[in-house]
Specification:
Blueprint: H1 3-13, E1 27-29, E2 32-34, E3 40-43, H2 46-49, H3 58-70, H4 81-94, E4 98-102, H5 105-124, E5 133-137, H6 146-151, E6 168-171, H7 176-184, E7 188-193, E8 196-197, E9 203-204, H8 207-220, E10 223-227, H9 241-245, E11 251-254, E12 265-269, H10 290-302, H11 305-325, E13 330-336, E14 339-344, H12 348-358, E15 360-361, E16 363-365, E17 369-372, H13 380-395
Parallel strand pairs: 3-15, 5-6, 5-7, 7-10, 10-11
Antiparallel strand pairs: 1-2, 2-3, 4-12, 8-9, 11-12, 13-14, 14-17, 16-17
Helix pairs in contact: 3-10, 4-10, 7-8, 11-13, 12-13
The chain binds pyridoxal-5'-phosphate (PLP).
The site of pyridoxal-5'-phosphate has 15 residues, from α5.
Length: 397
């Protein structure tokens, strides 16, 4: 089909919930994508942080193919090898104790919210039945379900779909006094944060704040939860961003990059709460699907220490290069590894549209930033080709 034919079918038959760009994509190799007509795009988006090992990755595709021929799905009523292996790998490399597998970020976050509320109810339910509030941060993003929208600390997500789930309060990031005051009210069971806020603008939390938050939560037996749906699986140069920050949260969610392009997510729990969710408390039909699990095992094999060191190195290279241009419309670069925000003057979307025209796919974040989120395996040549386009667009504005 041509791009025009694809777009026509989409506009006639798909709920138009997405503001799509005027681009259809057919295939890719490495970090380069091609339209049906053969136009090439350097990809600084990785399907929003998902395609961690790039396009046309042979070993990844082989792992999926082999597992699909053996056993594609069997439900959580039975044991399978890829599932058990993936659980072992993830816990060993994260320092966490146990995992629950889900299928996406929003669903993983629903799971961690249930875990936090049950943890508190099990321990304090008799004396303090209202100890169920979860504190999240302003500018956060936690998903699109009715509950994770309520968790999201951005007012413009809190409309249309009333009534939202109760029991969330939002405080400014990096403000220890504000979160302390919420905990003092006596009804808080957890604090849930993105260590680097992705959708909100690629805004890293201050390391001193994160360390203090860890201590505060431990002292009050309030669970510290990390939403690593975007920051996890090597994106920041460590397998999880909490490793970069040098803390262990009580639980963390992951999704986007875990299976390299297949839908998967999950919740990792530390020893403190690894048996809170017990038989019958939580479930999902597809969670830990053998094909997605086999893909994830291969993703983790490829994202070894050398690959993660490259993520850090390439991220620094991108930030140094952008800074070296000295453009007046670039305010700052921020982030970690290959999760980079470039704060610009003007409207980020206008820059993105001009980049797309010239063959570079790029994301925005918050109201003022371009977001660079390429496959973690992107080559230096692809980075340079993408940066050349970005430089031209920044120079013309
Ligand atoms: C993308 C994202 C989500 C939502 O994940 P879905 O897979 O779209 O449900 C949640 N939290 C963060 C931090 C994200 O970046």
């Amino acid at each position: 089909m041509t791009s025009q034919e694809i777009k026509r079918l989409d506009s006639q038959h798909v709920m138009q919930t997405y503001g799509r760009f005027d681009v259809a994509l057919d295939h890719g190799i490495g970090a380069t994508l091609y339209s049906p007509e053969g136009k090439a795009y350097i990809d600084f988006t990785s399907g929003i942080g998902v395609n961690s090992v790039g396009y046309g990755n042979r070993a990844w595709a082989d792992a999926i193919y082999a597992q699909a021929l053996k056993l594609g799905h069997i439900s959580n009523l039975y044991y399978t090898e890829p599932y058990a292996k993936l659980a072992e790998l993830l816990t060993a490399r994260s320092g966490m104790s146990r995992v629950f597998f889900a299928n996406a970020g929003g669903e993983a976050n629903e799971g961690i919210i249930k875990l936090a509320r049950k943890y508190s109810h099990d321990k304090y339910g008799e004396s303090n039945p209202n100890r169920n509030v979860i504190v999240t941060l302003l500018q956060s993003f936690h998903g699109r379900t009715v509950t994770t929208l309520a968790a999201t600390g951005q007012e413009h997500f809190h409309k249309h779909f009333f009534p939202f789930t109760e029991g969330f309060r939002h405080v400014p990031a990096n403000d220890l006094a504000a979160v302390t005051a919420e905990i003092e009210r006596g009804d808080v069971c957890a604090v849930f944060v993105e260590l680097i806020q992705g959708e909100g603008g690629v805004l890293p939390l201050d390391p001193t704040y994160v360390k203090a938050l860890r201590e505060l939560c431990s002292a009050r037996d309030v669970l510290l939860l990390a939403d690593e749906v975007q920051t996890g699986i090597g994106r920041t140069g460590e397998l999880f961003a909490f490793q970069k920050y040098g803390i262990l949260p009580d639980a963390a969610t992951f999704a986007k990059g875990i299976a390299g392009g297949l839908p998967m997510g999950g919740v990792l729990a530390a020893k403190s709460c690894d048996t809170t969710l017990a038989a019958g408390d939580h479930a999902t039909t597809f969670g830990g699907n053998p094909i997605a699990a086999a893909a994830a095992v291969e993703v983790l094999r490829q994202l070894d220490d050398d690959a993660l060191a490259k993520v850090t190195e390439n991220g620094q290279y991108i930030r140094d290069t952008v800074a070296s241009w000295g453009f007046a419309n670039v305010v700052e670069t921020r982030g970690a590894g290959l999760m980079i925000g470039v704060q610009v003057t003007g409207t980020p979307k206008d820059y993105v549209l001009q980049c797309i025209e010239r063959g570079l796919l790029l994301l925005t974040a918050g109201s003022d930033a371009l977001r660079i989120l390429p496959p973690l395996t992107i080559t230096r040549a692809e980075i340079d080709a993408g940066l050349a386009i970005l430089k031209e667009v920044l120079a013309n504005n």
